[in-house]
Give the backbone structure.
Amino acid sequence: MESARLVLKPGRQRRLLAGHPWVYSGEVAEIQGQPEPGDLVAVVDAAGRWVGQGFYSPKSQICVRLLSRHPEPIDEEFFRRRIITALRRRSLFYPDERSVRLIFSEGDFLPGLIVDRYEDYLVCQFLTVGVDRRRDLWVKLLVEELSPRGILGRQDAPVREREGLPRGIELLYGSVPDRIKIRENGLPFWVDLRGGQKTGYFLDQKENRRQLRTLITPGMRVLDAFSHTGSFALHSLAYGAGEVVAVDISAEAVALARENERLLRDEGLVPASGSVRWETANAFDFLRELVRKDEVFDLCILDPPAFTKGRETLEGAWRGYKEINLRAIKLLRPGGFLVTCSCSYHMDFGLFLQVVQEAASDTRRMLQVVEYRSQAKDHPYLLSVPETAYLKCLIAQVF
Ligand code: SAH
């Protein structure tokens, strides 16, 4: 059980009682006891009433992320139950996928812990000091519940600095090859576990990629902007696209995308007539160039990185989203499909629709919505924690 107590300022318990887990340091009136970084602490309201308990992060602005709202023991069995609940959700929704996000931090009631499964291997991110300190516990529980061949810690996420944690990559268990072949929607992809972005692959888009199947008719010309290792491009190709043009600024990502194309071809998953042109370039310049050349596409996919990580930079992000959407819309034939994404939490669903509409209106085109989608079900979001819902994916037909 916890030893120290954090007493909140008056009224500051409300958001927590409504289901949000974060306690900001400015909301704390008093710390009773002397908790060490990562210790379990109790949080009480100004009148001393119990609110919840969680790990203490003295260096971060978010000084506690609640793990439980009950005065229950937070021990190995508590975490085992949480992990098993998360695993059950994956086997329910993805009975056949062996590469999924197993634990999504707050979304799985385990703030600060991210675990991705890539076939027989696990890649973890420990994002708070409390989670980082208990690394042996996570390894023990994950080995007992999943028997992986190896576990890698991708402790290079910049957010670790806010917790005062060092950054690096570490082998936590067994052995882990540099890259492994995963399958997503039945298609093979290489994942670079140590050198790739984040944990190596963007699993959150798997259902949106699969959805391309409903849009593609044989021979279509497809543009995949911000293609990373080519997942959208290669799903398009496997689903019958005639020609795909893919662009990403990272030479490493494009090199792996080429290898992924080879994997698909070797397995006979691509019609012989389908081709991809891989480009290493800044997508902003590249799109402008395509428009200048009057190129025409049947389907444009935009999946940029988060253009903003805070409210302060929202305006610049707005311009970025508007520009790429405007260019993609210009490139589409009447009736062509736009698949446009944003993973910036601060660009919320409403704002994102607004920016895309602004782009459409500037080009005198109209967007007829096909579907409004979000992140895959292995990235669950809580209605009480808006920050857990970050991915927007709008599919529309452009007229
Ligand atoms: N669509 C990808 C994920 C995209 S992540 C997938 O399905 O896996 C965002 C990608 O944008 C990264 O690969 C990053 O290298 C790339 N990127 C960032 N800035 C860019 C820019 N200005 N132009 C082109 N690519 C960029």
Observations:
- The longest helix spans residues 76-93.
- Residues 197, 202, 205, 226-229, 231-232, 247-250, 253, 282-284, 303-305 surround S-adenosyl-L-homocysteine (CB under 6 Å).
